[in-house]
Every structure is written in C-alpha cells, then in structure tokens.
Amino acid sequence: MPEIAFLMGKSSSGKDNIFKALVGDKELNLKTVIMYTTRPMRAGEKEGVEYYYVDNEKALELEAADKVIEMRIYNTVYGEWKYFTVDDGQIRLGSGDKYIVIGTIEAYNKFCAYFGKDAILPIYIEVDDGIRLMRAINREQKQEVGERLERALAREKTQEVPKYEEMCRRFLADSKDFSEEKIKEAGINQRFSNDGTIEDCIRDIKEAIKQQLL
Questions:
Q1: Average pLDDT over residues 49-63
Q2: Is the pLDDT of residue 145 over 70?
Q3: Which of 11, 35, 165, 205 is most exposed by smallest CB count within 10 Å?
Q4: Using CA of residue 59, residue 102, residue 176, residue 87, what is the dihedral sign?
Q5: How confident is the model at residue 127 (pLDDT cuts 50, 70, 90)?
Q6: What are the DSSP calls for the chain, one per residue?
Q7: Are 11 and 170 in contact (CB under 8 A)?
Q8: More confident residue, 127 or 16
Q9: Which of 70, 135, 56, 66 is nearest to 102 (CA)?
Q10: Residue 165, exposed/middle/buried by CB under 10 A (0-12, 13-18, 19+)?
Q11: Does residue 151 contact residue 158 with C-beta atoms inside 8 Å?
C-alpha cells in the first residue's frame, strides 16, 4: 500500500493551496516533507515551513554526502535555482505515518526509484492552460498591489514590477515538463481537475487519499 502521496501540477494549477488544505486536514493527518532550495526566500515564507533555504555550497555538500533523493535545477532570469529533497530522516517508511510531498514528474520518478513505486500515490492536478494563464497573471498583479501598498506605508519611492518574464518562463517550461508523453511514461493514470472550484478538487483528492493511502 502507498505511504507517500505525491502532488503534481503545472504552475498556477492551484497545487500549493491544495497542498496546504490537505496538510491541514486533521482527518488525513498527513506528514509533510520539507524540501530544500537555493532560491531566495519570498515575502511571507518562513524557514522550515515552505522550504529549507540553503546556499549552493550547502547543496553541493549534501550531494557529495549522497543525501539528495532528487534535485531540480532551473535556469531562471534571476540565476540558477535548485529545489531538492534530502534524506534527512523526515520520511520513515513502515512507521505507520503517511506523507504528502509536492513536486514535478521528474521528482516523482526519482521518488519511485528511491522508495519503490508501490510506496507512492501520484496525484496530478489538471487545469486548462487558458485558465492557468489568467490565474498566473492575476497572481502577479495582486502581488504588485500588495508590494505597492507596503512601500507606500513605509514611504518608499522605488517600485518593483510584476515578474511577468519569470511567469512566462515557468508557463512555457511546464509544457515540456508535464507533457502528455511524460505523464504516460510515469504511469500517472488519475487526474484531478481544478478548472472549477478548488473545494471540489480538494474533496476529490481527499477521497482518493482515504481510499488508497489510509
């Protein structure tokens, strides 16, 4: 029986909010696995909550010690960012605990190779690309408004602009990273639509976890 629910989806698919809802569901009682990243901490994030934030030197040190389960490297407009999962004792199969992680198809495949495919329950969130693009644009615009308000209160004169270039890079990269060919190769058969209300999507995913993981 699977012990790890692995959540996947393209950018702006709602996977972060769905992940938080599932983690907060006391009926499911799923344990989280905090990933590591070399990217800068964003506003509202906290160390050891969204990620463990490390520099590239520390990432290389963990790789050399064979502690990295999987790693993704993104060449962004702001430089090279690494996202990776470390074998640091957070996951203990056979302990009776059930876990939930979030990542890409590539990361899912590496988790399967490391822990065995039978231990992983794939959860793929699907959203129409047009809806996804509009959500991404709206998110950037809301972030800009929040940043402007914060600067106004602090009487700052400088203004940042929404990161549309990086948003577009992620959107296009997802077409390759989550292609139909890669989805089929990974053996992902269950898909959960988030085109409508996120509550419906969360309900369907929760039911699948209860039936297949718990």
A1: 95
A2: no
A3: 165
A4: positive
A5: confident
A6: ---EEEEEE-TTSSHHHHHHHHHT-TTT-PEE--EEE-SPPPTT--BTTTEEE--HHHHHHHHHTT-EEEEEEEEETTEEEEEEEE-SSS--TTSS--EEEEE-HHHHHHHHHHH-GGGEEEEEEE--HHHHHHHHHHHHHHHHHHHHHHHHHTT--------HHHHHHHHHHHHHHT-HHHHHHTT---EEE-SS-HHHHHHHHHHHHHHHT-
A7: yes
A8: 16
A9: 70
A10: exposed
A11: yes
Q: State the residue for tokens 């699907």.
A: 126
Residues shown for the chain: 214
- Given a contact cutoff of 8 angstroms between Cβ atoms, the answer to whether 11 and 134 are in contact is no
Percent of the chain exceeding pLDDT 90 equals: 57
The predicted model gives 193-207 an average pLDDT of: 93
By C-alpha distance, which of 212, 11, 47, 194 is closest to 120? 212
In this prediction the pTM is 0.74
CB atoms within 10 A of CB 154: 7
> Hey, what amino acid is at 185?
E
How far apart are alpha carbons 11 and 34 in whole angstroms?
A: 19
Is residue 29 within 8 Å of 98, Cβ to Cβ? yes
